[in-house]
Amino acid sequence: MTLLSLSSTALAAPKADLWPLWQASNPSNTAKIDHTLWQGLLNDYLLVAPKQTRFRYAAVSQQDKAALARYLSELTALDPRRYNRNEQFAYWVNLYNALTVRVILDNYPVSSITKLGGIFNFGPWDEKLITIRGQKLSLNDIEHRILRPIWQDERIHYVVNCASLGCPDLLPEVMQADKLNEQLDEAAKRFINSEKGVDVRGQSVRLSSIYDWYQSDFGTLAELQKHLNTYLNRPVTLVSPSYDYDWRLNEIK
Q1: Smallest Cα–Cα separation from 238: which of 228, 230, 248, 252?
Q2: What is the pLDDT of residues 9-36, one digit of tens each?
Q3: Burial tier of 201 (Cβ tally within 10 Å: 0-12, 13-18, 19+)
Q4: Where is the DUF547 domain (predicted)?
Q5: Where are the beta strands (DSSP E) in the chain?
Q6: pTM (two decimals)
Q7: What are the boundaries of each domain within the chain?
Q8: Torsion angle in degrees (nearest 10) through CA of 72, 14, 57, 66
């Protein structure tokens, strides 16, 4: 298999850099945000398989593209700061994943998300895609200026999807405020026990480049080993692991 991969020196992950505007929350607000439209698209177009989950981009109807646009419009019309922390987390993750699917659909067919974003850009992550409360946001804003710095949970990397085969799978169920820890743990276990997460061949260990790019989130090699072994079916010892990533589109034709 040919992997479309880049070393950590070629692809430097953005640092977690808090955007203070989005830090506010309302712990007493018990209101729920409706993610039914997004769940409907996942039900119809996401194919979950033991080794790799794929999305049927080519099959998405105009009606369902309109439903996705309506869902995104509904989310961006809200002020997430008015909700409690768990509801906010589900909001931002679902928004990120739905936006990523829309970006692919808007440019489909495409072999990799890295082909988007212009000649001098590696992917569309810095493009301002939406406006919330008068603020224009990109995918990188959501992940690196909101999710990572506010929640400071390394499991975030297992639930935001970049439409690539090397990425943790797009979850078949929308993030739900009352199930976050369970969903985060399930996503971590699935990815870490897949070959694209941790691939052990004899004495050789190949890890996803996620663990290289986001070393600041996962810590030292010893701390990363402890994290991985929390979820691995068979514990692993890390000495000098290699890293790789498959940037090909997570599609099924």
Answers
A1: 228
A2: 346 689 999 999 999 999 999 999 999 9
A3: exposed
A4: 81-192
A5: 46-47, 54-55, 128-132, 135-138, 198-201, 204-208, 242-244
A6: 0.95
A7: 20-244
A8: 10
